[in-house]
Structure formats: C-alpha cells, structure tokens
From TrEMBL, chain A:
It is found in: Cell membrane. The chain crosses the membrane at residues 33-58, 95-116, 128-148, 177-203, 224-246, 285-305. GO terms for cellular component: plasma membrane. This is Sugar ABC transporter permease. Pfam families: BPD_transp_1. Its main location: membrane. PROSITE patterns: ABC_TM1. Belongs to the binding-protein-dependent transport system permease family. Keywords: Cell membrane, Membrane, Transmembrane, Transmembrane helix, Transport. The keyword Zinc-finger does not apply.
Automatic annotation (TrEMBL), chain B:
It comes from Devosia nanyangense. Keywords: Periplasm, Signal. Pfam families: SBP_bac_1. It is found in: Periplasm. One of its GO terms (cellular component) is periplasmic space. This is Extracellular solute-binding protein. Belongs to the bacterial solute-binding protein 1 family.
Length: 314, 418
C-alpha cells in the first residue's frame, strides 16, 4: 500500500515535470520558429493581408484615388451598390459565366481526356495540341477570337457563308443574347487544356483490372464509363469543379479585350465593372465594395461546395 | 607637400566634375505620342527630341509609348506606378482631365500659364474656356484640337453622282441611295469609346445645335429636354432603317475604319487624326473628302474641343524640365514644324500664319473648323457620366434601347453629379 502510494505520488510529481518539459520544448521550438517564419509572414501580410484590409477600408470611404484624402462614409457605398442595376446585372452575368466556363471548359476537358486516353500512338501529339491554347495569354486569345467573330471579315461568318450556311451567321459579339456565350467560348478554349490534363492524370490512376472485371461481367462502353470511369474520377472531378469555379469568378481578360463589358453592359462581369469603376471613373469606394462582394462569393461558393463534397464522400 | 597638394586638387577637380555632370544629366520621361511606332510620327518626334536635347545639354528625352488613355485608366495606372512619366501627352477634354485632377494625379499649371506666357500662346477663347472649367485652376496645356465631321470617298461619290448635302433631310436621302447600291452607309466602332462618341456628338449637334449641346454637357439643359432628344432618336432611326448595321456594335475603331478604308462603307465620322489611320491602312488621302454633319438648323460645323493636352503628373521627378518641354512645344518653330509635317494630325491651339497643311484633307478640315467647333460631349461630360454616355450609344447601335431611353439614362447620371 505504502509502495503504491509512493509510486502514485511519484507519478503525481513526475507528470507536472514532464508537462513542464514539454511546454518548455514547445516554447523553445516556437522561439526558434518565429524568426524563420517572419520573412514569409511579412510577405504574406504585405501582399495579401494589407491589400485585403485596405480594400475593406476603402469600401467605407469616398476615395477617388490613391493621392486623395478619403472620408469615412459608413455603409453608403454598400447602399449604392445595392441600388445600382449594373451591379445586379453583372452579378447575374458572372454566375452565367461561371456556369458556362464549368460546362464548356470542364466538360470539353473531360471529353477530350476520355478520347485522348484511348489513343495509343498519337496520344502525346493530341495531348500536346489540345494543351497548347492554355499557353496563350488570355489577352491574346481575346484579340484572336475578336477577329474570328468579326461580323464583316471574321473567319466564323465567312466560313458559314462559304459553306452555304449564311443564315447561321450572327453578330457574335453584338447580339445581346449571344455575346456572353461567345466570349465564354473563347475563354473556355484557352482553359480546357489544363482540365484535360488533370482528367488524364485521374484516368491513369483508375485500376485497369476494374475494366477487365466489368468487361467479363458484360458491361458495354457506356456502362464502363458510368460505373467505372466516372466514379474513379470523382476526386479529380471535384478538384476540377473547384478550380473551374474559381477561374470562372476571375473571368476578366477576354471580356475586357473583346467587348469591354458591352454592348450596353450585356457582357459586363463583376470584375470588368470593378475595373471600370476603379480606373475609368475613379470611384474606388464602390469598386472596393464589389471586391468585397466578389471575395465573399468566392469564399462562400468554395466553402459550400467543399461541404457538399464532404457529405457526398461520407 | 607639393604632391599632396596636387593630389588634393586633382581629387577636388574630379569631384566637382562628377557633381556637375551628375547635376546636368537629366532624363525627361514623356508619355506619348500615340502611334510613335508609325515611321512618319517617329521621325517627327525623334527630330523634336534631338532639338530639345541640343538646346538643353545633359538632358535626355525618353518616350514612353502609351498603353492607353485616361478613359481606360492607363494614364492613371502609369502615374500611380510611381515609375511613370514626367510629362504626359494624352487625349484630354474636361471629362478626362477632371478624372485625374480629382484623383490628385496631376499638378496645377495656372501659375505657369502666367509666368511662362502660355496664356498668350493659345487662342484667347481656349484660355478662357480652360479658366472656366475648374474655377480658374488649369491643369492642362492644349496640344491640339479635334474637329469631328463626316469623311467620304471622293471617287465613290463622283462615280455615283452623290454630293454631301446641306440638310439632314437630304442626308437621309443620300443614305438611302448608298444603301440601295449595296454599300453600308455609315461605319462606326462603338467598342472604342471615343468612336461611339464621335458619331453621336455629330448627331446631337446636327439635331439640336451646338449651343444646346454646350448647355447639356454643362448641366444647364436636361438631356431629356425635347430640344436635345432629337439626335438620339435619329441615331436609332438610322439603325432601324439599316443605315447603320446593328452588328457594328461589336466593332472597335479599327474594325469600323477597315470597312471604310475598303470602301464597304461610304461614310465615317472622324477628326484630323484619322489621317494617321488612313496612312497606316495605305489609303489614298487625296481621295478623302470631309464635310460637317448636315443640319437643318443652318450650316453645319464640326464637333470637337480640346483633343490632346500636356499634363504634368503630381509625382513628376522633373517638373521644371517638364515645363521647359512645354515651352519648347509651344514655341513658334516647333508648332510650325509640326503643323507642316506630313505626320500632322490635328488643329493647333493657336492661329499659325503662313502654314500650309501637308494634305488636302487637313486643309478641308482646317477650313471647316475656321469658324470654330462645337461640342463633342465625350470630352466635356463628367467622368462618371461619360461611361454611361458611351454605353447608351452601344445600346442604341445594338437596337437595345430607344433614343429617349438613352437620353433618360444620361440625364439620370447627370443628376447624380449635380
């Protein structure tokens, strides 16, 4: 009994000592880690946290530019944003753009990945060829496609005319119903190559014996796609969807180059409107509100999507 | 001792020489001119640069090719980058200049006008106009004036027996004849903001007169006033009648100009600067005709205003040198040299005696503008309104909105400014 008490007592004395040692080791590790982390933290604070803070602050001011003195105006800019029909219109366009990018760039990436994966000798050639547009800057893509869509000299309408399909010729960038779609096609053409590569990587990770088993069970091509390939790509697909959504929200360059948001706001995205407000009209307060809105949207969509993905995985 | 003295003297001489050369070696970074890559323009400006450098030993002028204008934020970005220009030549007008003045990006030049005699080196009416715009404070030195009117092909008109009419009713008749020939009557590229405004400003002035337009841009007259709406309604009628193709809403200035240079379109609204575009497109300028937009209110006149100005950024590293450069530009010798040069593309800010325009079309434009020019709203409207102004023009050209709706939207923006 006495021995037990002694042991217990020893343990009682020893525990705080161990904990103390662990705490001290933790403190020492932290002390040595801080100087190592400081440069990275400083850069992060300077280039990420500070701009975020400044943008948030600007959204409560009547700032007209960096050189001006800005006064605090409370929620006035938020009220102006809510009352501005162009904000709502560009918000709707942004969602349409996002969905279009997801379907066109993501969808085309998946289809081409499936097609290219079935090739043997020419796989590398096609994979490279399809990826090439992704290496072209979006601004250059915009210029190329604006010329393709030119209503009077453009390749598309000229080709349709030559093929006797002149009735299908359109004002691709002037028709209010077509313009956003047309620009999105150009943007998706630039983007699908990356998604294709990701899907190809995913396809290579699917165990080939699953296809053999499916074949023995008599599954045809479509059934193999539906029951083996697509479930096998689930992880990659969720990643591609996240990436495509974020890229969709960032849509700017092609719209800016090809239409500058027109005609009459019909291709205006939140991003292009932010640019015009900030740099053409010098309305930095309202532009900052839209930046806050866009960031909130990006965070919200990502959180909701990841939550949904987590539930689906369970 | 002697050796020590000699060494000290040599060191002093070297140090003085170093300081002197350091003080004199200065670089003036100039934003502009536009189209510097065009050989004729490059030749002219490189000549001016050499003259200035020769007159100011130790000074080097560096051209910074413009990536845009105030309208698309390029000038603001260049100034705010703090690695930007010391003096700027850019598209101006009160709307654009107000944008950079409100953002405190450019320095006031009012004192320099008086001290350096610039007030005597531009038209008195122009100086008075500049003084009126911002309560007496002036931030720009006009480099050139715009005079926007209708360009046509002389050979096409001669072959078809067409002439530029005097009244709007006759103008409509002409547009009908052109369309019947299978030619597009008017080309416009509203994707380029300025291009949209060139035609619309002409239509407004033709329908309402320059006085009414002047009052509207300064907020004295409502844009929805019946005396102002006519031009916008007429523009929509031109679209509805097929005189302006709806698909042109997708074109920029270059795209629309291409239609005109290739003679697929008969008419184009532009200013003297269009001579540069024509040269680039290898269009025979002798075949170009120019006339003010016909009006039922009397003899037509071009629209315009200050087209290009010199600005000195608030963060210019060489403000004094920038002033010297402007002195140099305003000198008789430089102004005459520019006006007579083949690269000349504008009307100069003061009367120049004995100057022969380098092309016949410029002579026509100078003659049309001799009695003064009207208002091009693109350069007079406040910055927050001008964006709406350009958008509603696109709305009319793409047949999305009526003329009345367009003017109501401009007026709503004007009301916000008031």
């Amino acid at each position: 009994m006495a021995t037990r008490l002694t042991t217990a007592a020893r343990r009682g004395i020893a525990r705080p000592k161990v904990a103390h040692r662990a705490r001290r080791a933790g403190r020492e590790a932290l002390t040595s880690a801080i100087p190592l982390l400081l440069p990275a933290l400083a850069i992060y604070a300077l280039f990420s946290l500070l701009p975020i803070f400044l943008t948030f602050w600007l959204s409560f001011t009547d700032s007209r530019g960096l050189n001006t003195s800005a006064s605090f105006v409370g929620l006035s800019n938020y009220g102006r944003a809510a009352a501005d029909p162009i904000v709502w219109q560009s918000l709707v366009h942004t969602f349409q753009w996002l969905l279009g990018h997801l379907l066109m760039a993501g969808g085309l990436g998946l289809i081409l990945a499936l097609a290219v994966s079935r090739l043997r000798l020419t796989r590398v050639v096609f994979r490279t060829a399809f990826f090439l547009p992704h290496l072209v800057s979006l601004a250059v893509v915009g210029v190329i496609w604006a010329n393709i869509y030119d209503p009077f000299y453009g390749l598309l309408n000229t080709a349709l005319d030559r093929l006797g399909l002149g009735a299908l010729s359109q004002g691709w960038l002037s028709d209010p119903l077509l313009v956003l779609f047309s620009v999105n096609v150009a943007s998706s053409w630039q983007g699908f190559g990356l998604y294709m590569l990701l899907f190809i990587a995913g396809l290579q990770n699917i165990d080939h014996s699953l296809y053999e088993a499916a074949e023995i069970d008599g599954a045809n091509g479509w059934q193999q796609l539906w029951y083996v390939t697509l479930p096998g790509l689930a992880e990659v697909m969720t990643f591609v969807v996240s990436l495509a959504m974020i890229n969709g929200l960032k849509g700017f360059a092609t719209v800016f180059v090809m239409t500058n948001g027109g005609p009459f706001y019909q291709s205006e995205l939140i991003t292009t409107y932010i640019y015009r407000l900030a740099f053409s009209m010098q309305d930095h307060g309202l532009a900052a509100v839209l930046c806050v809105l866009l960031s909130t949207l990006a965070i919200g969509i990502t959180v909701v999507f990841n939550h949904w993905r987590g539930r689906l995985a369970r | 001792m002697l050796r020590r003295t000699l060494l000290a003297s040599a060191a002093a001489v070297l140090a003085t020489a170093g300081l002197a050369s350091g003080a004199q070696a200065q670089t003036l970074v100039m934003w502009g001119p536009e189209q510097i890559t065009e050989p004729l323009i490059a030749e002219l400006w490189n000549g001016l640069k050499a003259d200035f450098e020769a007159a100011n030993p130790g000074v080097t002028v560096e051209f910074m090719p413009p990536t845009g204008t105030i309208s698309n934020g390029a000038v603001q970005s260049a100034i705010q980058s703090n690695a930007g220009p010391d003096v700027i030549l850019t598209n101006s007008g009160i709307a654009r200049v107000t944008t950079v003045v409100d953002a405190k990006l450019v320095a006031p030049l009012t004192a320099a006008y008086a001290e350096r005699g610039w007030d005597k080196q531009i038209y008195p009416w122009l100086y008075a106009e500049l003084q009126r715009q911002r309560g007496g404070e002036i931030y720009e030195v006009p480099d050139g004036l715009d005079a926007l009117g209708v360009w046509y092909h002389k050979d096409m008109f001669a072959a078809n027996g067409w002439t530029m009419p005097a009244t709007y009713a006759e103008f409509l008749d002409l547009l009908g004849k052109i369309k019947d020939k299978g030619i597009m009557p008017i080309a416009i590229g509203p994707r380029t903001a300025g291009s949209a405004g060139h035609l619309f400003g002409n239509m407004l002035q033709s329908a309402s007169g320059s006085e009414a337009v002047g009052k509207a841009v300064s907020g004295e007259l409502s844009w929805t006033d019946p005396s102002m709406v006519g031009g916008a309604v007429r523009l929509r009628e031109l679209v509805d009648k097929g005189y302006i193709d709806k698909e042109m809403a997708a074109l920029d200035l270059d795209g629309a100009a291409r239609l005109w240079f290739n003679k697929r379109a008969a008419l184009f609204v532009a200013g003297p600067w269009f001579t540069a575009n024509a040269r680039k497109a290898e269009y025979d300028l002798a075949n170009a005709g120019y006339a003010p937009m016909p009006s039922d209110l009397g003899p037509g006149k071009p629209t315009g205003g200050v087209g290009w100005s010199w600005l000195v950024p608030a963060n210019s590293k060489q403000p004094e040198l920038a002033m010297k450069w402007i002195d140099f530009i305003l000198s008789d010798a430089v102004m005459k040299k520019r006006a007579e040069n083949a690269a000349s593309t504008m009307i100069y800010p003061r009367a120049l005696d004995g100057v022969n325009p380098p092309t016949a079309i410029l002579g026509d434009i100078f003659a049309a503008a001799a009695a003064g020019v009207g208002y091009n709203p693109s350069v007079y409207l406040p910055a927050s309104v001008v964006d709406t102004y350009f958008q509603v023009i696109q709305g009319i050209i793409s047949a999305q909105i009526s003329g009345e709706d367009a003017m109501a939207q401009i007026e709503a923006k004007m009301a916000e400014v008031k």
